Amino acid sequence: MTVSPWRSLLNKDFRLALPWFLGGLGLIIAFDLWFSRASLLGTRLAFSSMLVFAHFIYFPVYLFISLWLEGKQIHLWLYNPCPAWQLILSKLVVGIPFTLLSLGVSGLYPIYLVLGPMNLFGNNPTLDPTAFWSDVGLIVLTILWTSFHLGFFLLAVWSVHRWLRTYMGKWSWVITTVGTLAFLYLLTQWVTSPLHASLFQWGPSAEWKLLGDNRGFEPVYTGEILSDLLMTFAFFFLAQWILEKRMEV
Asked: Which residue stretches of the chain have pLDDT < 70?
């Protein structure tokens, strides 16, 4: 039975990422076991929650490792019969489930502490469980959304760097770094401007229940979600265009 190039690509990316994924799970379990030795429940919850919030950078780190390994044999990777967008998509198809699984495992111990030893709702009868878990769910979605967005940004930066490297050699790191910092500065100026707020802060799609009362947590706006999606597609398009049109095999 002939295996399609797309399926072969998926199998290759899966084998490439699996050791790092299993290693990450091993670290999460080891740290949780270590944190469980703390005498104070609050200390255990604080440190174990740090593993959850570490997933803000999980997907970018996964992509960085995967692209760094591909960079060692870039010509073999680009020589694959699949088009550039499939080369990238394969890594996303593999990396996104791994990110979800890792985040789920990292959340098991904090949830156990909240519902078990800490008995959060029993000791705080005025606390609304629905509002609490709504905020927790929104935090998880924010972590995933940010992680994936950063991953696509890293993908675009890596592609630009590989393109510049063919012309500038080692100097490409300098140009890429300066260009990235300049882009981040301009992006920050844009997203904090009144014009951006007037264009994209519309249609609140989710609101914080407990964290939204004068704690600096603004609603999640539909307009800003669409803005992030457009930027994500732009990063993806730029990366595949560079790999397809500007990189020499």
From this structure: 1-3, 212-216, 246-249
Q: Where are the alpha helices (DSSP H) in 72-214?
A: 74-78, 84-115, 120-123, 129-168, 172-191, 194-200
Token reading at 86: 């499939």
Q: 116-171: per-residue pLDDT in tens? A: 888 888 888 888 888 888 889 999 999 999 999 999 999 999 999 988 888 887 78
Question: Exposure string (b/e) for 93-105, b if CB count within 10 Å is 16 or more?
Answer: ebbbebbeebbeb
Taking residue 50's Cβ as centre, other Cβ atoms within 10 Å add up to 13
Question: Are residues 233 and 89 in contact, defined by beta-carbon separation less than 8 angstroms?
Answer: no
Which H or E element spans position 37?
A: none
* Radius of gyration for the alpha carbons in the chain, expressed in angstroms and rounded: 21
In contact, 66 and 16? CB cutoff 8 Å: yes
Distances (CA, A) of 227 to 1, 115, 156, 186, 221: 44, 37, 17, 15, 10
For Cα atoms 155, 194, 143, give the angle at the middle one, nearest 5 degrees.
40
